[in-house]
């Protein structure tokens, strides 16, 4: 049942207080300057309560985007500490733009407006953010709403549900040619105070492992009898085995016999053996000495995948080595394995048709 009360204010003005009482639910009230607004609010509130929507909407009005960001950042920190720093960075941008908005005010239109602003504004040390970067900002914010809906019941409807991702160009494939690889490996051996750099780069090239996976590697994860490295803490949360062969195996066997017993890290920091080695400055020195242009450490992973493709590995095999769950991420190497694919088809036809 809805009721409208006329109230005289101290300054002589008139306001209208709407009250809605429905059996089994707490009474709701709101004050308006116009009777028509009060009547409309009472009507919509009564309908929403009867349909079971009102209190969910009311909950969204209690919480701001900043509260959502802070709670979600803590949620990530507890479950995936490694991602916390980056998630917090993305969330901080949304808080800067929408922090004081209540969750009930966040609409698809508003989010698209802010997304387009993000796309056209400069980022950290760059003039314009790439579509892939924008998609990461959107993914983090979207997942925060998903958790708010499913676990905290702060929101009923997802404001980002029908917002499509920006199209992204095919993934970067920058790999070392034979001359570049030779120059880089020579440079790694010449960098002063970085005797571990050469082995680090060789392992990256021969296994396709990520920098973080290698730099945090512990001896307990190196099985010399099986000639393999076992990664327990990977990006996709699945255990992965990296076979060791030839030069990479020789280097790690030699390193094991002369390892620093004060640390269980394969690449300990020189002065703090219990900490992982900060290899960035040594890496930059090596790439500069080798005169490499537009080449990052992660491109060693692309190089390993490219070498696999050029030596006959299928996309499924490359995905297995790199630890990708689907073939989508390795299709960038498909043009390199076309000769192998043609050879497979030729052998099949020769066998069945003679």
Explain what this protein looks like in three dimensions.
By secondary structure, this protein is mainly alpha-helical. It has three domains: about 1-50; about 65-150; about 180-350, hpI Integrase, Chain A. About 50% of the residues lie in helices and about 10% in strands. It is built from 14 helices and six strands. The protein has helices at about 35-50, 55-60, 65-80, 80-100, 110-120, 130-150, 180-190, 195-205, 210-215, 245-255, 280-290, 300-310, 315-320, 340-354; strands at about 1-10, 15-20, 30, 220-225, 230, 240-245. Strands 1-2-3 form a three-stranded antiparallel beta sheet, with helices on one face. The longest helix is centred in the middle third of the chain and has 22 residues, at about 130-150.
SSE diagram, text form:
Blueprint lengths: L1 E7 L5 E7 L7 E5 L2 H17 L2 H9 L2 H15 L1 H18 L9 H13 L10 H22 L25 H13 L6 H11 L3 H5 L6 E2 L4 E4 L8 E4 L2 H12 L22 H10 L9 H12 L4 H8 L15 H16 L1
Antiparallel strand pairs: 1-2, 2-3, 4-5, 5-6
